[in-house]
Amino acid sequence: MLTQQNIINLVAIAGIFLLSCFSIYKNKLTITGGIWAALISICILVGLGYKFVILLGIFFLLGTWATSNAKQYKAALQGNTEHPELRDAYQVLANGGVTGLCGLAAWIFPVYGFMLQVMGAASLAAATADTLSSELGTVYGKKFYDIITFKPGQRGKDGIISVEGTLIGFIGAAIIALSYALLKEIYLYAAIVFVAGIFGNYIDSVLGATLERKSIIGNNLVNTFMTASAAFLASLYFLL
């Protein structure tokens, strides 16, 4: 017998499958990227609930829009003929893998479900802040500075930030934090999600200015550390 929850889950899985296929068709995700996006979404669904899948969808839509914004201009800055919009499996895992792991862990260890839920929201807030600040800060920023030395830097380079890009990142984290609060009706923890998201975005810039700039690690690993650091900071509220 199908319960209301089972019906909701089946509809959500169908929606996940259709969105992944549509993203592959529209050249937003590679085939493997679409598969991993679907798997991450299902982990989130079974562990954190269908409302959290909506939160993941908000991140995806914001990121897709930001990447498409002024893409010819960004391509010219990078010396390319076209700014890349297609995301592969590594990029999907780097931005959403930590959230997916939180969902999987919540399914296996439901006693820690609420903490993992906040951690997952924090990782999404960091990913959103990073994507929006990187993609839109490059376009709308006026003056650019090195995150470590605060000396003037070159637009679009690793670890280079602007006031405008930073503020846009704040807005991205706030959108996820407020969306989480509204969807789950838990307003107290929105501040934790927001602060952790901003922290993760800061870690991303620091790693970009140091390890990534020296080619010690790549951008995908930087993004993984970024989302993980946001989730870790959120977990401290429950562990300390």
Automatic annotation (TrEMBL):
Pfam families: DUF92. The keyword Phosphoprotein does not apply. One of its GO terms (cellular component) is membrane. The chain crosses the membrane at residues 6-25, 37-62, 92-114, 160-180, 186-209, 221-239. It is found in: Membrane. It is a multi-pass membrane protein. Keywords: Membrane, Transmembrane, Transmembrane helix. The keyword Transmembrane helix applies. Belongs to the TMEM19 family. This is TIGR00297 family protein. It comes from Chitinophaga caeni.
